[in-house]
Amino acid sequence: MNKKELLERSGHSCELCGNTENLDIYTVEPADYSDNEIIICSTCRNQIENPDQMDPNHWRCLNESIWSEVPAVQVISWRLLHRLKNEAWPQDLLDMMYMDEETADWAKATGEGNDEEKIIHKDSNGAILENGDSVVLIKDLKVAGAGFTAKRGTAVRRISLVADNPEHIEGKVEGQHIVILTKFVKKI
User: Fold this and answer.
1) Long-range contacts, stretch 23-27, CB < 8 angstroms, 24+ apart
2) The pTM is what?
3) What is the pLDDT of residues 34-64, one digit of tens each?
4) CB 68 within 8 Å of CB 98
5) Can you state the angle between helices 71-83 and 101-108, rounded to 10 degrees?
6) Hey, where are the domains in the chain?
7) Alpha carbons 14 and 51: distance in angstroms, whole number
8) Which helix (H) or strand (E) holds 73?
9) C-alpha dihedral (80, 83, 87, 88), degrees to nearest 10
10) For the chain, how far is it from start to end, CA to CA, in angstroms?
11) In which region does residue 9 sit, left (phi positive, over 0), alpha (psi from -120 to 50) or beta (all else)?
């Protein structure tokens, strides 16, 4: 689309915040998606291109733009909400937002929003642990409440990861189901 067509589609206003001044075309990356251009104002462009200068209150306008029928507007709105996740309100908008699968893939194509905190369990050497792995204890561990010490070199098979704590795994030692700190195990 040319600028005139984009301005007509947008109603001669920024497709993100509604501003009617200093409008220009913005290409939503990656450029290999069709209809990847939107009309934005200079304020929105400056904050998109300079994330350290983002004013969270300016972006409350995304409450409206997430409902746009234009996929490129949805994509940039989703990315901006992910940039603002340290604020309290953007997560609510992300939870309400709907994008079809192709648009969601486009939104994630640049890696934006993929920095969500994933819990990764690592052994004492930094090897990534997964459910079902086998590990060996690298230190004698006194098992609280069980009345025994799990000896160094003991193999723990088919471990389970503790979902909300990257430093804990679960496994059976001497028939007892116990929680083990990852810093005391080595993946086999």
Assistant:
1) 26/76
2) 0.60
3) 889 999 999 999 999 998 889 999 999 999 9
4) no
5) 50
6) 3-108, 135-187
7) 19
8) helix 71-83
9) 70
10) 57
11) alpha
